[in-house]
UniProtKB/TrEMBL annotation:
One of its GO terms (biological process) is apoptotic process. The chain crosses the membrane at residues 12-32, 77-100, 107-131, 151-172. InterPro entries: P53_induced (IPR015664), PMP22/EMP/MP20/Claudin (IPR004031). It is found in: Cell junction, Desmosome; Cell membrane; Cytoplasm. Keywords: Apoptosis, Cell adhesion, Cell junction, Cell membrane, Cytoplasm, Membrane, Transmembrane, Transmembrane helix. Belongs to the TMEM47 family. This is p53 apoptosis effector related to PMP-22. It is a multi-pass membrane protein. Its main location: other. The lineage of its organism: Eukaryota, Metazoa, Chordata, Craniata, Vertebrata.
Length: 189
């Protein structure tokens, strides 16, 4: 990307595209019912960020309990949701920043800083949830934190990595804008 500059049409939108993928992963984590699931048969426990569902046997009906009745459940949901909303704001700002013909590199560095703040909030929610869930909710059988919880961690890792990219990109401003004269290493025979 640095070699061709951000005016190169295929490279210009890579960072906003990656932010968009992070937003999609965040939506999957927020809406997914697979934060915690039973690992072995009979499947008797399933939980999301919002509720915990159990059933007495393999063919019985699921009974769900809202996690919003617990203070830690509200804290985990609120912190992860704040991190997700900051990610959506960064996505919108990145689209605006890269749509302008002349890039404002300080603006891009601000997006990187905001991504780090979003990562802190997301990680707080992702740490509160399993610690308090495993101590407060009675679990039967063997359970595992599953696919939706993994999407939450993927979103947090993407926020950190993209934060580094957005913060470090202004260091290569001259190379990106093409203001550096190429150096040729040529030795005559």
């Amino acid at each position: 990307m640095v070699k061709y500059g951000l005016d190169y049409t295929r490279c210009r939108w890579i960072l906003p595209l990656l932010l968009g993928i992070g937003v999609i992963f965040g939506i999957i984590a927020l809406a997914g019912r697979g934060w915690l699931e039973s690992q072995t048969l009979p499947y008797v426990h399933q939980a999301s960020l919002w509720e915990s569902c159990t059933r007495p046997g393999p063919g019985g009906p699921w009974t769900c309990e809202s996690l919003m009745g617990y203070a830690w459940g509200r804290a985990a949901a609120a912190t992860y949701l704040v991190g997700f909303l900051l990610l959506v704001i960064c996505f919108a700002l990145a689209i605006i920043a890269f749509a302008i013909d002349t890039l404002r590199f300080n603006f891009i560095r601000g997006i990187g800083g905001l991504l780090f703040v979003a990562a802190v909030f997301s990680i707080m929610g992702l740490v509160i949830y399993p610690v308090k869930f495993s101590t407060e909710i009675e679990m039967t059988g063997i359970n595992m934190f599953s696919w939706a919880y993994g999407f939450g961690w993927t979103t947090a890792i993407m926020e950190i990595c993209l934060g580094f990219f957005f913060c470090c990109l202004p260091n290569y401003e001259d190379q990106i804008l093409g203001n550096v004269k190429p150096t040729y290493f040529y030795s005559s025979p």
